[in-house]
Design goal:
Number of strands: 5
Distance between the termini: 23 Å
Largest sheet: 5 strands, parallel
Order of helices and strands: EHEHEHEHE
Number of helices: 4
Helix content: 40-55%
Radius of gyration: 14 Å
CATH topology: Rossmann fold
Structural class: alpha/beta
Shape: globular
CATH superfamily: HUPs
């Protein structure tokens, strides 16, 4: 069984990772930690795109390493993936899950975006709407 966890650095995404790890332990599943870098939202004031990628890569690697080093992560097969997307974050998550034959997607209710929906974040809503596998939304 494969479980994909969307990580964006928010506390909600880390909570989602903890749930996914618990499920993986119980079901002897593997985990894919996924972060999507959305190119259309590139903040041009940060310099070049290559410079931006380097900064993001360092930050994302720190998140992935932190999750992999949690005590409850020990013994679980955890892989890491970063996608640079010219489409939406939702589309990237759903397409990657399909390509990899993911059995479950785990997302947090809200991410780091400043725009907050009343009940669910827009990424969580989109993944629920378009994913072909079950989606667990962690609050």
């Amino acid at each position: 069984m494969k479980i994909l966890v969307a990580i964006d650095g928010s506390e909600q995404s880390f909570k989602a990772a903890r749930y996914a790890i618990d499920i993986a332990r119980r079901l002897d599943a593997s985990i894919i930690l996924l972060h999507v870098v959305s190119i259309p939202q590139f903040p041009h004031h940060l310099g070049s795109l290559d410079e931006y990628y380097r900064k993001v890569a360092i930050e994302v690697d720190d998140w992935f390493t932190m999750i992999s080093n949690w005590d409850e992560s020990k013994g679980i097969n955890i892989s890491r993936k970063v996608i640079h997307s010219h489409t939406s974050v939702v589309e990237s998550i759903v397409e990657y899950a399909e390509e990899e034959g993911v059995d479950l997607i785990v997302v947090g209710t809200r991410g780091r975006s400043r725009f907050v929906r009343a009940i669910l974040g827009s990424v969580a809503q989109g993944v629920i709407a378009y994913a072909r596998c079950p989606v667990l939304v962690v609050r």
